[in-house]
Amino acid sequence: MSLEEDLRARLTASMKAKDLRTANVIRMINTKVMERRTAASFKGEVDDEVVRDVIAAYKKSLEKAREEFAAVGERGVEPIAELDFEIGFCEQFLPQQMGDDEARAAVVEALAGMGGAVDPKSAGRVVGAVMKKHKGRVDAARIKQLVDEALKPPAGPT
């Protein structure tokens, strides 16, 4: 069963169970998939990879909104709970994220693959290499942070 068919079946089940929270999340994902499908720049089929990309992008936007609600304090508590539910729902369709140790190892591997002579100005190439090899399993901001740490010159006496 494709991911899109699975979502359709879950939508039907959640509507029958009167689980509006789940139904609303699935409807939003379906809307985002439809937007991608009908975009002028989109060519080809909507397969599981495209659906996962859509879900990952939606999850990222939810996480950003969560940070903004957290910044407003007490007034943001109720929306944060709803966003946490939606983020959790999205995570079940996405690959497991790398842990810190695995991400560090991926950065070291990418640096070694580039000959080891990488200066801080080329950090973007290293991040790109890690992101390409481990698509969907790593956060670009976290990888950038690890690359910057790895490329930081050792602190010497001043």
Characterization of the model:
- The protein is mainly α and 158 residues long.
- The chain has two domains: 3-91, Hypothetical Protein Yqey, Chain: A, domain1; 100-151, Arc Repressor Mutant, subunit A (Orthogonal Bundle), CATH 1.10.10.
- The protein has seven helices and no strands.
- It has helices spanning 3-16, 20-38, 48-71, 77-91, 100-113, 123-133, 140-151.
- Helix 1 packs antiparallel against helix 2 (20-38), helix 5 (100-113) packs across helix 7 and helix 6 crosses helix 7.
Quick check: average pLDDT?
86
Total beta strand runs:
0
User: What fraction of the residues are assigned to beta strands by DSSP?
Assistant: under 5%
From the alpha carbons, calculate the radius of gyration and give it in angstroms: 20 Å
Number of domains in the coordinates? 2
Low-confidence blocks of residues: none
CATH architecture call of the largest domain: Orthogonal Bundle
Q: Could you give the order of the helices and strands?
A: HHHHHHH
N-to-C CA distance: 62 Å
**SS summary, helix count:** 7
How would you characterize the largest beta sheet?
Answer: none
Shape: globular
